[in-house]
Design a protein that fits this description.
Elements lengths: L13 H23 L2 H17 L1 H6 L6 H27 L2 E3 L11 E9 L3 E4 L7 H12 L6 E2 L5 H13 L14 H10 L3 E5 L2 H11 L6 E4 L4 E5 L5 H13 L9 E7 H14 L6 E2 L2 H15 L7 E4 L2 E2 L5 E2 L2 E4 L5 H4 L13 E7 L2 H8 L4 E2 L1 E5 L2 H7 L7 E4 L16 E2 L2 E2 L4 H7 L1 E9 L14 H13 L3 H18 L2
Parallel strand pairs: 3-4, 3-5, 5-6, 7-8, 7-16, 8-14, 13-14, 16-17
Antiparallel strand pairs: 1-2, 2-20, 6-19, 9-12, 10-13, 11-12, 15-18
Helix pairs in contact: 1-7, 2-4, 2-6, 4-5, 4-15, 9-10, 16-17
Length: 501
């Protein structure tokens, strides 16, 4: 994604880079006035933006060309509007200074008052993906603006139209369009924006892209949120409703052509339930249309399926059509009835280890939850996971699953709750978007203390007797034994009586 830094510019791109740099400078110039507005006024603008989104919902959905408008309305437009309403209701409380009372204040700081403030970073660059080109950068944009930042956007492939329309709606809502310029979709625009000087970056993309972007940020120590790839696990427990499981997995393969970072990819199911589940999936696959995918993804999927078909893989059966390539790439839905040998093949099979953006899924029969967790842990990605089965058993399994979000008896949809943070672990990235935590990611902390009067004993040079005094104070306030504390307090009082404060 990012292969250069602020000191490197290709001559052929100098004019485009100069335009990006100028727009970042305009955003930086406009940001202080926006941040100076009371939070209530910024949130009033977010409310007007939500109303603009509602009024223009049909046209906004039409800007996303790779799926039917009805799917975009429910998958992107509605969650984005809900995210705006969450900010209207919660952001003022979350962004307000938090004043610390006397409780917990050390005795030696008597007379001081303290507060913790949340302030905007300044310019937060949003580097967006192509799979959800409206919801993901749109929610991040709304949170950045609510916190008082400027928020330039570098769209993913095919995402510029959606973001440019959203910024037009924001301008109609009274938000200065200089705060959120939308750059071209090419890699060079992102490189130029970083080179222009930013204060934070929020990236949604692959782990490979994340590494390159982080390398470009390192010289300037720019902080970042990395929402990266996934290869999500599904744990099917004894007692699960297999019809519900099959419907959920089919939904995950069908939604957005399965180009969803938290789509189900690795299904760990008790051996006694594996064959009945596979039969249900076999019946569901014909109703899932082939999904257009880029040529590099088609090649990756073809390689992974060839590996799974090899006799040495331990895979029992491949169900589905595989990949057909016509220059742009097209993948048919495939499901793997995977390692009959269990964990040994599961640890090495590429389908269970790589991030995949195509309608491909592996079904892995396991002996028990321990084996499922053991195989699942071999994957470097830890974005989301799902559990199907009795709620109490699922609740006990949740703490043992390495993932940023877990859904029980459902997939994907609950993570769109605007109250919930979203982020991963391991090669799925770090930091958080959405929810209260995502809003706070758009701020930087500042602690402030206030002190009146003139009493400042710490300004005095140390005296020979101070070691005894300090030791008595530490013991009086922190020693575990009551007798020790009492004796130290007596010694401290006598010390003050003889030597003063």
């Amino acid at each position: 994604m990012i292969e250069s830094n602020s000191t490197v510019a290709l001559p052929s791109l100098s004019e485009a880079a100069a335009r990006v740099k100028a727009r970042v400078a305009e955003a930086r110039a406009a940001q202080p006035a926006w941040a100076a507005q009371p939070v209530a006024e910024r949130l009033a603008a977010i409310r007007r933006l939500r109303h603009e989104i509602a009024n223009a919902a049909h046209d906004l959905a039409a800007t996303v060309a790779h799926r039917p408008p009805a799917e975009t309305l429910i998958a992107e437009v509605l969650p984005l509007a809900d995210g705006c309403r969450f900010l209207e209701r919660e952001a003022a409380r979350l962004l307000a200074p938090r004043r610390l009372g006397r409780r917990g204040r050390p005795v030696w700081l008597a007379g001081t008052a303290a507060e913790i403030r949340r302030e905007p970073h300044g310019v937060v660059l949003i580097v967006a993906p192509s799979n959800y080109p409206l919801l993901l950068p749109g929610a991040q944009l709304a949170q950045a603006l609510a916190a008082g930042n400027a928020a330039p956007v570098k769209p993913g492939a095919g995402g510029a139209a959606a973001m440019r329309m959203l910024v037009r709606l924001a301008a109609a809502a009274g938000i200065d369009p200089r705060l959120c310029p939308v750059f071209d979709e090419d890699v060079a625009s992102g490189e130029a924006a970083i080179g222009a000087g930013i204060d934070k970056l929020v990236l949604t993309g692959s782990a490979a892209t994340g590494r390159k972007v982080l390398a470009s940020l390192a010289p300037s120590l720019v902080p970042a949120v990395m929402e990266l790839s996934g290869n999500d696990a599904v744990f099917v427990l004894d007692g699960a409703d297999l019809d519900l499981v099959a419907a959920a997995l089919a939904f995950g393969l069908r939604l957005n052509g399965s180009a969803t970072c938290i789509a189900p990819r690795r299904v760990f199911v008790a051996r006694t339930l594996a064959e009945p589940l596979v039969e249900r999936l076999r019946a569901a696959l014909p109703a899932i249309p082939p999904a257009p995918i880029p040529l590099p993804v088609a090649r990756q999927v073809g390689r992974l399926l060839d590996e799974a078909r090899a006799p040495s893989s331990g895979v029992a059966e491949l169900i589905g059509g595989g990949v057909a390539t016509d220059g742009s790439g097209c993948a048919a839905t495939a499901a793997i009835l995977a390692p009959s040998g269990g964990a040994a093949a599961g640890r090495t099979l590429g389908l269970l280890r790589e991030d995949i953006f195509a309608p491909v899924m592996s079904v892995v029969p396991v002996t028990d939850e321990e084996e499922a967790l053991d195989i699942a842990a071999c994957c470097p990605y830890a974005l989301g996971a799902a559990i199907f089965g009795p709620v109490e058993r699922a609740r006990a399994l949740v703490p043992r699953i390495r993932a940023g979000s877990v859904t029980v008896n459902d997939v994907i949809a609950p993570t769109a709750d605007p109250r919930l943070p979203f982020g991963g672990r391991g090669e799925s990235g770090f930091g958080t978007t959405r929810g209260a935590e995502g809003l706070l990611e758009m701020t930087v902390l500042k602690s402030v203390t206030y002190r009146g009067g003139r009493f400042r004993p710490h300004y005095q040079p140390l005296r020979p007797t101070d070691e005894t005094r300090f030791l008595a104070y530490v013991q009086a306030t922190h020693a575990p034994a009551w007798r020790t504390r009492t004796r130290a307090l007596r010694d401290l009082i006598l010390h003050f009586a003889r030597h003063g404060v």
